[in-house]
From TrEMBL:
Entry superkingdom: Bacteria
SUPFAM superfamilies: Nucleoside phosphorylase/phosphoribosyltransferase catalytic domain, Nucleoside phosphorylase/phosphoribosyltransferase N-terminal domain, Pyrimidine nucleoside phosphorylase C-terminal domain
Descriptive protein name: Thymidine phosphorylase
UniProt entry keywords in alphabetical sequence: Glycosyltransferase, Transferase
PANTHER family listed in its UniProt record: THYMIDINE PHOSPHORYLASE
Enzyme Commission number(s) from the entry: 2.4.2.4
Recorded family membership: Belongs to the thymidine/pyrimidine-nucleoside phosphorylase family.
Amino acid sequence: MRAYDIILKKRNGNALSKEEMEYMVLGFVKGEIPDYQMSAFLMAVYFQHMNKEERAMFTEIMAHSGDMIDLSPIKGKKVDKHSTGGVGDKTTLVVAPIVASLGVPVAKMSGRALGHTGGTIDKLESIPGFQTSLSLERFFENVNKYGIAVVGQTANLAPADKKIYALRDATATVDEISLIASSIMSKKLAGGADAFVLDVKVGSGAFMKDLKSAKELAEAMVGIAKSHNKEAVAVLTNMNQPLGRFVGNSLEVLEAIYTLKGKGEEDFVELCITLAAWMCYLAEKGSFEKCLEMAKDSLISGKALEKFRDFVTAQEGEGEVIERPEEILPISGKIVEFKAKQEGYISTIDTEKVGIACNYLGAGRSKKEDKIDHSVGIEILKKIGDPVHKDDIIAKLYISEKSDLETSLKLLNDAYTITNHPGEKWNTILEVVK
């Protein structure tokens, strides 16, 4: 078998066998197939795509290239949630406690920030003392005892995907549906959950800018899950404006605590309740409608807040953050206001630019080695459809001495469009794919 023949076969639009896929993927991981041949293979896939069977095989091979986590020591049906990435997306911090409070074990491995989207692990590390690295034994113990644990991904989870993604990033082959879906689902399968709720973001702040491509990705990921005998539901959600009110690590933890106390923003609460309900539904806690009511009750009654307290203290975080988040979380006291330059309505927001502006303040990374500043971020005061007068405050920037304030303000200025008419408001939940 030769890499040349496999590349040629795919370039000509023919389906590959599992043996051919394994030869390429595992050969590349071992260093037997050079970058230039794998690059050619990825470009062939980019133009010719993969069929349903190829996607399933490609995903399985990448998943099995490293550790396969066995979650059987954890009691109950394990349902994982995954977001394709957005701006102000702190949903795990609210959804996980809701679900855990309803008897569904949450054993979650999350990532860090990269690009314009935030990372759950970075947000949790805003809480003083919080440990995101636990031994597997303690991870299982926490889930069985408290119903919830969230840790960083292990170094050897789907290593083939990590190596291939780095090459995709350098060869303009990132945005192909089969490659995106298999990349996400290889890590999900390796993580060992029984079922998945996939939050597929759509809009200016998402990887998928339009509903059609987002639905294709959702269908591909659900299809891969089903081909491996796993249940999955994909929820297409609005990312045409930042989610909730805050963007930035400590600020998003602050907002999550506000939400768990019943003071959340409407769009954020709706998304959290919906995702939690689907997780409970897949865990066989009842009909979706019943699960929706259970999730609402958990939030209103304070059960989810108490579960969040258990979760934080179990991972050595400062439990007092629940009572005094503004004091305990590292939040910058230096604030700069971004104001409207004219009267009118907020008609559009380029949400990706808002995320990048937050990164220039120091909240994100351009490469994995970069250090982030948990104290900085952006508070969104005006969203699509809101009326503004000249000099009204649209957003507040929480900055540090190292923040590139000039670039951040320029990006926000470019991100917001003010016209004489309100812009089109999208629903928070756009569609569900099962």
